[in-house]
Amino acid sequence: MSKPTVAIVGASADASKYGHMSLQAHHAAGYDVYPVNPKGGEIEGLTVYTSLAEVPVEHLNRISVYLPPAVGLTVLDEIAEKGCDELWLNPGSDAPEVVARARELGLNVVQACSIVDAKLN
User: Fold this and answer.
1) Residues 6+ apart with CB under 8 A from 32
2) Bridge partners of 33?
3) Is the pLDDT at 1 greater than 80, yes or no?
4) Does the pLDDT value for residue 108 go beyond 70?
5) Which of 25, 86, 100 lies closest to 33, judged by CA?
6) Mean confidence (pLDDT) of the chain
7) Is CATH 3.30.420.130 the right assignment for the domain spanning 1-6+61-121?
8) Using CA atoms, how far apart are residues 41 and 108, in angstroms rounded to an integer?
9) Residue 51: is it exposed, middle or buried by C-beta count within 10 angstroms (0-12/13-18/19+)?
10) Domain ranges of the chain
11) Averaged over 11-21, what is the pLDDT?
12) Angle at the Cα of 85 (from 79 to 108), degrees rounded to 5?
């Protein structure tokens, strides 16, 4: 059985940021984690992809977003193109216009903290 997959959009090397905490929580919960940040590089030994298109998985179980709403709106088409079972819009990224556009694109939106979910499962 394969491990569940998650892309953390807005992943951060800064341990005080939620984009870093999410990476750690999902990894501890057994996910294959794909950090996404336009800066690239490496976080906790994981390659950071500069876009979702670079993530080497055809379809993700989960995409978890840690971006301000204005930036989140700009990546929704890329998210829809990549495909995922669940799009987690974390607190602060879940502005009404982001949620509405994600739903227009047919994405299965979850408005909740994916860190808490990863730790509970």
Assistant:
1) 3, 4, 5, 6, 57
2) 6
3) no
4) yes
5) 25
6) 95
7) no
8) 29
9) middle
10) 1-6+61-121
11) 96
12) 75
